[in-house]
Amino acid sequence: MLIQLRDATLADLALLRYWDTQPHVIESDPNDDWQWETELPRELTWRQQLIAEFNRKAIGFMQIMDPEFDDEQYWGPVGSGYRAIDIWIGEHGVMVGSTWPSANV
After folding, report:
1. Per-domain boundaries in the chain
2. In 3D, which of 39, 34, 42, 38 has the Cα closest to residue 17?
3. What element of type H or E holds 20?
4. Is 92 helix (H, G, I), strand (E, B) or coil?
């Protein structure tokens, strides 16, 4: 049982859209629009968008970024040398109320 991270790509678009429709994801931020079609192909030196896989099955999405360069400045003014990590979208059984990791994933 090994978790691996790989780059998220446009090939993940349908999966990310599906996850966006799930109640636990909507509940976390009902007005969120990641604009996957625009953001996935953008290659930025200060950001990584990753798919987490468990036993080769996609279970979640995460983003690691330097908030100093964030387009939206979500965190406000931030100096250099910091990282922000978002882990908030994925399969319900893995993300919410599960015994994790589970062989049933």
Report:
1. 3-95
2. 34
3. helix 13-20
4. helix
Token digits of residue 5: 């991270």
Task: List Cβ neighbours of 26 (8 Å cut-off, separation of 6 or more).
Answer: 20
- Is the bond preceding residue 101 a cis peptide, omega within 30 degrees? yes
E strands present in 31-83: 47-54, 57-65
pTM of the full predicted structure?
0.79
- Contacts within 8 Å (CB) and 24+ apart, 61-69: 61/8, 61/12, 61/16, 61/19, 61/87, 61/88, 61/89, 61/90, 62/5, 62/86, 62/87, 69/44
Q: Mean pLDDT score of the chain, rounded to an integer?
A: 84
Q: Which CATH superfamily is domain 3-95 in?
A: Gcn5-related N-acetyltransferase (GNAT) (3.40.630.30)
| pLDDT tens by residue, 50-63 | 999 988 889 899 99
